[in-house]
Amino acid sequence: MLPHLARAASPTRIGVIGAGSLGGTVGRLWVKAGHEVMFSSRHPEELESMARELGPRASVGQPAQAAEFGTVLLLAVPFEALPQVGRDLRSAYSGNWRRPSRSSKADPVGVPT
Known about the structure:
- By secondary structure, the chain is of the alpha/beta class.
- The chain has 5 helices and 4 strands; from the N terminus they run H-E-H-E-H-E-H-E-H.
- It has helices spanning about 5, 20-30, 50-55, 65-70, 80-95, and strands at about 15, 35-40, 60, 70-75.
- A 4-stranded parallel β-sheet has the order 3-2-1-4, with helices on both faces.
- Helix 4 (about 65-70) crosses helix 5.
- The longest helix is centred in the N-terminal third of the chain and has 12 residues, at about 20-30.
- It is globular and about 35 Å long.
């Protein structure tokens, strides 16, 4: 990645649910690019040292907190877990997310209807 392209034009608040190898790596890159990132997992206490290392733009919370925190949400969980994550977090992200317009073919992944 080119360093000059990786910098945030304006910081975005990003919630990361699942901070393993995918969520942790991408979240770290976003923090280094200037975004505010809240990392979450089933064991958020295990993420405290990573957040301290990354500085004030990184924080840790429960998955529902990360869903409420972010204007962008990365679900970095196993595919099989998506339906349950959608059910668990439906109320946390319902105020932050809009369904795409009718002209769009996309629907939020893992959101049970």
